[in-house]
Design goal:
Structural class: alpha/beta
InterPro entries: His_Pase_superF_clade-1, His_PPase_superfam, Nudix_hydrolase, NUDIX_hydrolase-like_dom_sf, NUDIX_hydrolase_CS, NUDIX_hydrolase_dom, Nudix_hydrolase_domain
Enzyme class: hydrolase
Distance between the termini: 20 Å
Number of helices: 7
EC number: 3.6.1.55
Protein name: 8-oxo-dGTP diphosphatase
Keywords: Hydrolase
Oligomer: single chain
Length: 290
């Protein structure tokens, strides 16, 4: 049995602002919606699923909040949290796990919460921007060996593993809701985001600034900055990803991560608010680890 119990949840809020708290009869406590990550489940999908199951709300994930760890018997529970907004709401149905859902303003919510770490998350959220826009920077999925491809490189398609990764990515990226979708003008980058674009019914735009052999670091970063403020997805190449992340952090006056690279099908999510970087997170679709 693993020593760490992985879980995911959110500080779910709506205009007011008001915050969603749930009552769990088994513990007789008031807490933020959260739950365990299922075996093989990605933490983003777990957060969305648990919120919907416990509140009846379909959420759109916003900026990453601090991870909370606390002891459960001889083990440690680690809960990864996001801010989240409702995009669809079903009638709340009480059950054995959650028998009450309330929406409260910040002061009342903090007073009602049973656990200090939940109240700390609420205060942390209020110290930052309420509204943020995600900018997802994605390295294309697997596309076979370049040296084995005899035709023009821009025509090199995803291989079988890459197509599976593209399908997984479509489900994960739904966590952020509909995103403007922009791609390098190469087959492998376009094919990586096609399943997502079809699910959310948005067109895929091609952009030379994100296409290998057609751009330079300054051009790529400036184009990326021009998209700030609009929820967006950029599908590009490994050699361009590092330039985008490092350049974006420098332009916004933030520390550049020690490792800006991505493996194929991995992505960075940059949460922006009024020209500032509110949060930065990195994900892979292949495992439950984020």
């Amino acid at each position: 049995m693993p020593d760490v119990i992985r879980a995911a949840g959110a500080l779910l809020w709506r205009d007011g602002p008001e915050f969603a708290l749930i009552h769990r009869p088994r513990h007789d406590d008031w807490s933020l919606p959260k739950g365990k990550v299922d075996p093989g489940e990605h933490v983003l999908r777990a957060a969305v699923r648990e919120i919907e199951e416990e509140t009846g709300v379909v959420p759109r994930l916003g900026r990453r909040l601090p991870t909370v760890s606390y002891p459960i018997g001889t083990r440690t529970k680690r809960v990864e949290y996001w801010a989240a907004r409702p995009v669809a709401v079903s009638a709340f149905t009480p059950n054995e796990e959650v028998d009450e859902l309330v929406w409260l303003p910040a002061e009342e919510a903090e007073a009602r919460l049973s656990y200090r770490h939940d109240a700390d998350l609420l205060r942390e959220f209020l110290r930052g921007p309420l509204h943020t826009a995600p900018l997802v920077i994605l390295r294309h999925a697997q596309a076979g060996e370049k040296r084995a491809w005899r035709e023009a490189d821009e025509l090199r398609p995803l291989d079988e593993a890459g197509r599976a990764e593209a399908a997984d990515l479509a489900a994960l990226l739904l966590s952020y809701g509909p995103l403007r979708t922009v791609s390098s003008a190469t087959a492998r980058c376009l094919e990586t985001v096609l399943p997502y674009a079809r699910r959310v019914r948005v067109p895929v735009e091609t952009e030379a600034a994100f296409t290998v052999g057609e751009t330079n670091p300054d051009q790529a970063v400036e184009r990326l900055l021009s998209m700030a403020g609009t929820p967006a997805l950029v599908s590009t190449h490994g050699e361009i990803v590092s330039e985008l992340i490092a350049g974006l952090c420098r332009k916004l006056g933030e520390k550049v991560p020690d490792d800006t690279t991505l493996d194929k099908a991995e992505f960075w999510t940059v949460h922006l608010a009024d020209g500032t970087l509110a949060a930065l997170e990195r994900h892979t679709p292949r495992t439950a680890e984020s």
